[in-house]
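[Solved] Which block belongs to which protein?

Original post:
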Amino acid sequence: MSDRHMTDATVRGQFLRFAAVGTAGFAVDAGVLTLAMAGLGLGPYAARVVSFLCAATFTWAANRAFTFRGADPARPARQWARFVFANSLGAAVNYGTYAVLVAGVTLVREAPVLGVAAGSLAGLAFNFAASRKWVFGAAQDPPSRT
């Protein structure tokens, strides 16, 4: 197996684990949002801040332990802050993709859920790339044999 093929397989595996962690993070986000509103009496905006921070913390920890196991374990607070920042940018990519498609594509304007799907995929791709390269570093990549 070539180094390139091994690296591609590693990235694919990381992407699938990242997506699985994100799915679990969605459940944390939705659950905390519901509890914050019903149990703590927070409004939808304040509750969303709480739920986002809880979900981001959960997904950061899970990605650190599961997706990017080989990442540098030093400075976890800085790594968490980078992760939250990167995911905030990913949310902007998600929304921007949605907004551009709704404004420019008749089919998406008529079925906005298509824009939500496209935005989600764009945000996922951005968040994965930012997490892999900027948050967790390239330390998890297999060493080159050359």
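(Second protein starts here: sequence line, then its structure tokens.)
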Amino acid sequence: MDFIHQTVHALRDAVIQKKVSARELTEAFLRRIKAVDGKIAAYNTLTPEAALTQADQIDSAISKGEPVGPLAGVPIALKDNLCTHGIRTTCSSKMLENFVPPYDATVVTRLKNAGAISLGKTNMDEFAMGSSTENSAFEKTRNPWDTSRIPGGSSGGSAAAVSASEAAAALGSDTGGSIRQPAALCGVYGLKPTYGRVSRYGLIAFASSLDQIGPITRDVTDMALLMNVIGGHDPMDTTCVNLPMPDFTRNLSDSINGLRIGIPKEYLINDGGVDSDTAAALTAAILQFEKCGAKIIETSLPHSEYAVSVYYLLATAEASSNLARYDGARYGYRAKNTKDLLEMYMKSRQEGFGPEVKRRIMLGTYALSSGYYDAYYKKAQQVRTLIKKDFDEAFQNVDLILAPTTPTPAFRFGEKTDDPMAMYLSDIFTISVNLSGIPALSLPCGFSKGGLPIGLQLLGKPFDEETILKTAYQFEQQTDFHERRPTLV
């Protein structure tokens, strides 16, 4: 049995039933990483010794008949902005190249307690600022389906690792589409949970009112299993909502007959808003949902055209505040041979941050500056409220909203690096979800004529991940897009 291509739930069952040991499974994934990561560059840091130690502990517990967690022995990957005790956490930035946190993020602790085995930390756009993982200070992660193309971003390393079978699943973070967009471009599943459903404690912040941690997996059942583990209230995070946690696996097989799925007319699925291959895949997917019994209804999100502008004002403003702590004095990169404190601050930031991070800090600082705050930041917050209101009104008439995840399949390296606005528009269909705080799942729905994955996203009501998951599950049962794998040696 080729375990590296199996789902999380299949691997967990195999370990518990002693068809394979956790150590054997971990070694298989480590061999896979050694064989293909030179082509993909999904990882910044590997932790083979710690992973094998965890695996031996799982095997020992199983041999003694002791209880093990719901992810027992499953090898996973972690985005490199999640704090890990004793393991460097870089945010793919020179600023944090040698930073070793003294604690684990809450989601990391919960994965450990569930028996998951961490293989290492995955590459990303620096401080999660980007849509292609070209902004990493270390490597450019490549798309397993075509290594001349980007994997998406900023969780490109996590999505590529799952797609290339270098991990059974991974965690990413989503500020404006950074889980869903790379998941779509790499042919896997990516969920941005409702803001407050998953603790952000230990996530190195980009934009605190937008950031959310979520899973990247190979199928919907795996997504539900990981959400059962990482979701729920955390007193260490004051934005984490104290609501009862459902069992997300419980209702996956429920019928979606009569479910109302809205198609926003502003997203122009058949009128030039997306490329022809993506439009064709989405049209076919809509027909498939209808065959499953769903009702397709046109809906409207009238303020969608302002989402990109609003996002890049609010996200950059919060980034300029969050990243002010990196001054070379307390931790992180410190410039050498400076004559005074001011020069140390300036040179540390100049040398430690990459160009995209500097660009966003400057934009955010400008938006928050005296004389411009009301015109830019305050106005953006007001329009954000209108965008949220659009979703509230739409969900009075529909249960879910269907939209493209990306306008096109994965583009080639360098195509958009000289045009920041073109790069920013890669997230045009995902940004509104973060501004509104609602959950959204990207799932594979087809392939381009060139063989590149295409994804669609299902947007749900706040804290209604269950409906999203069961709808995606029904689509998954009728299609085989999630079973296809990129060809790698």
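Accepted answer:
You had them paired correctly. Confirming on the second one: The first strand starts at residue 43 and ends at 46.
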